[in-house]
Amino acid sequence: MTSVLETYLPNLMNYQDEFIKAVWQTIEMVVRSGVIAFVIGITLGVILVVTREDGILENKLIYQALDKSTNLLRSIPFVILITFIAPLTRTIAGTSIGIDGAIVPLVIGCVPFLMRQVDMALSDIDSGLIEAATAMGVSPLGIIFRVYLKESIPALVRATTITIVSLIGLTAMAGIVGGGGLGDFVTRYGHARYMHDITNVSVLVILIMISVVQGLGTIIIKKTTH
Predict the structure, then answer these.
(1) DSSP class of residue 97?
(2) Which of 155, 174, 153 lies closest to 108, judged by CA?
(3) Percent of the chain at pLDDT above 90?
(4) Rounded to 5 degrees, what are φ and ψ at 138?
(5) CA 186 to CA 195: how far, in whole Å?
(6) Rounded to the nearest 5 degrees, what angle is found at the Cα of 154, between the Cα atoms of 139 and 58?
(7) Which among 37, 165, 174, 196 counts the fewest CB atoms within 10 Å?
């Protein structure tokens, strides 16, 4: 088996330790930034929904601030965003390179996307359920957890799945500017040194990661759909 790999994947075998390290770095970036982005994105997405006009906690100032800032951040290409917020990244993480330096821009790049996904998911909730809960005297916090979030679990899982898939792609771009992971590995060897076997296997690994995420998302959606 080893001789076969050395024949068809010579460059990858020469740098297999770095390759394995790059895979784990990518996974670490996805997990760390994903958890943070999920908490912030869900929270801000809920606030966006409940503070809009006719929302249960209508507040035009908060809604406009969140809405405009979300649109602004989503309009900035991620590679440019990394450089643009480098001073902020260094302030928060102490560095703007490596995995620690990639987490801040990954979170900022993901949160607006997830917020919009949450916005769409919660906006599909039957207004009759909200009106009924309000008439029963349920508090706004109770409506958020017992109506908005509970009734939209499948949609939120779908939104989270889409966001994680997008995040995996962002980690590759973060690697290009020194964030580590498969993006950095492919740039240094697959692209700069024309080692196509490294590029091909890295693409395959990314596809496997995405397939696993989508598969788990589909299973959870089926389990929570009623």
Answers:
(1) S
(2) 174
(3) 48
(4) -70, 135
(5) 9
(6) 35
(7) 196
The arithmetic mean of pLDDT across residues 40-58, rounded, is 92
**Residue written as token pair 């958890």:** 35
Helix (H) or strand (E) holding 123: helix 98-123
Q: What is the DSSP secondary-structure string of 10-57?
A: HHHHHTHHHHHHHHHHHHHHHHHHHHHHHHHHHHHHHHHHHHSTTSTT
Helical pair 86-93 and 98-123, crossing angle rounded to 10 deg: 110
Radius of gyration of the chain (CA): 21
Distance CA 199, CA 182 (A): 9
CB 96 within 8 A of CB 83: no
pTM of the model: 0.90
pLDDT band at 226 (very low <50, low <70, confident <90, very high): low
Query: Do 182 and 125 contact (CB within 8 A), yes or no?
Result: no
End-to-end CA distance of the chain: 48
- Please state, in angstroms and rounded to a whole number, the distance separating the CA atoms of residues 12 and 141: 53
Q: Which residues contact 201 (CB under 8 A, 6 or more apart)?
A: 9, 12, 19
Longest distance between any two alpha carbons in the chain, whole Å: 72
